[in-house]
Design goal:
The chain contains 3 helices and 10 strands, in the order H-E-E-E-E-E-E-E-H-E-E-E-H. With 189 residues, the protein is of the alpha+beta class. It has one domain.
Length: 189
């Protein structure tokens, strides 16, 4: 009986253990400055974001549910070593979640990626969304490197394609309206 109670007390700790991931990149996945085409400078901040929805949208401003887990700076140009990051207690081990790395030039007056997102002159960048199943210790945490992290650029943000498409459609309709008013009506005698 005592063994059964003891085992029941241990089971929740294993079932609901917090997962971990390794927050780092290497030269093959370095962050590059789009304007200079050189590796991003060490004054670049990097954040690791998680979303419980493994199908979350990659565009940072239009997908709810993203949570900042950790931040670090580049240790050498283009490279970050954020270490092992533990997920919050409501993200259970063996549950697939979405991760994204976001970067911003921290020499600007912005303290976070979200603050810099509203500045049209801010230097920003983000990775593809990686779907990863975090692991609890003592298992080694999965690394972003082997889970789909690819090199990405930081630069001045460009509006979403739908914003550009709507602007183009609006300009085209204005041009057609003006053209229609200029043309004299066709009158036959």
């Amino acid at each position: 009986m005592t063994k059964a109670v003891f085992l029941l007390l241990l089971v929740p700790g294993f079932v609901f253990a917090q997962g971990q991931v390794l927050f780092a990149n290497n030269g093959a996945t370095a962050i590059t400055n789009f304007q200079t085409m050189q590796r991003a400078v060490t004054s670049t901040s990097v954040g690791l974001y998680v979303n419980p929805n493994p199908n979350a949208n990659a565009w940072p401003s239009s997908s709810p549910g993203w949570l900042l887990l950790a931040t670090t700076n580049l240790t050498v140009p283009g490279i970050f070593l954020g270490g092992i990051v533990t997920l919050p207690s409501d993200y259970y081990t063996d549950r697939t979640v979405a991760f994204q790395v976001r970067a911003w030039l921290s020499s600007t007056p912005h303290e976070s990626f979200e603050a810099a997102l509203d500045d049209p002159n801010a230097r920003l960048g983000w990775s593809v969304v990686m779907v990863i199943t975090p692991r609890a210790p003592p298992a080694p945490p999965p690394a972003l490197l082997g889970s789909g992290l690819q090199p990405f650029f930081i630069g001045i943000t460009i509006p979403e394609p739908t914003t550009l498409a709507l602007a183009g459609l609006g300009l085209a309709s204005l041009a057609l309206g003006k053209l229609a008013r200029r043309r004299p009506p066709n009158r036959q005698a």
